[in-house]
């Protein structure tokens, strides 16, 4: 009852607010082709979560939990010099919640330079979100269709990178309907330093160069060249984009074979996807995404992860899915993923309504049953993505070992999330 009352009050207050279009760009006095600007993005979550079995919060068992957190915060400064050279710096942090608020330091996320050598070719380097594999390997999180994306779409997040960003050099460009990028990265040392075992894990050895690419064919209107891809375009463009991508890093993983010898293996990720946004008459639009993913992290690799997790431990009732809202989301195997949304303008008003649904189906080597994750909700676009309210329902699996020793789904748990997003630029 408390969560329903909170949702009603928050929706009323936010509906009365009037977002403004602040001029956050300054041009050179002598040449308008040179300028500097600022962007600010923030997402606040108010959430009710059904915790996984055995979850502990501050040492006490908790079957459910209500919390308020900052899901994402971004401060970005950018500059353009003589139309060809760009400098980008982003500070930010994710998941500032009751567990991390006092230590949730602001990180340096982006700091890179890019230069347009030719109208079809841009080169750059630094720490950036330029990536390959799929459209949402680097999602524009302030322009998502859904509340969030499934973790498997960003498969090495905070293991070999810094909130998706890597120390990289990249080549990118557009020619006709083609959009292309190739990225060479020196990945960070892995965070997970667990003892080597028969299941594959990130190797604590000198890392190889990571190579990623993504090639996109755009049938109708063209999206701008950017490291990040939007999940929805507000019905402003007619877009149909077919993409193919890959990522590979030699000697990235290790495991023990049957003779207890240490073997190192590569990470090989391959994906194909289709994104579309089709405007209709009456200020309506359909948005959709469909992707196929083949991930090879070595034998039986599986990562249990929960975004913005509320759990701080497990007791004896805990399961393989871990604490809070975690679940086995990323692993060696095959996955399919979809998003569908429909938007329309409210009669006589500037707001838009956008219900959506998304789902993941994964067949991972270590599990004896498939992983399915579902999300459904609705966006209230009060001023496009600059002022957005989202109410979403998420449903995830809980896996554990059965009587035969197999990892199977035991039950399912859910979360209800109310998010407010502000985006100023």
Q: Could you name the ranges where pLDDT drops below 50 across 5 or more consecutive residues?
A: 1-20
Strand content: over 45%
Query: Structural class from helices and strands?
Result: mainly beta
Q: What is the H level of CATH, i.e. the homologous superfamily?
A: Porin
For the biggest sheet, the summary is: 16 strands, antiparallel, barrel
Number of domains: 1
| Count of β-strands | 23
Secondary-structure element order, N to C: HEEEEEEEEEEEEEEEEEEEEEEE
Calculate the mean pLDDT score and round it: 92
Share of helical residues: under 10%
Give the CA-CA distance, first to last residue.
37 Å
Q: What is the overall shape?
A: globular
Neighbour order of strands in the largest sheet:
2-5-6-7-8-9-10-12-13-14-15-19-20-21-22-23
**Assigned CATH class:** Mainly Beta
Task: State the CATH topology.
Answer: Porin
Number of helices: 1
**What's the alpha carbon Rg, rounded to whole Å?**
22 Å
CATH architecture: Beta Barrel
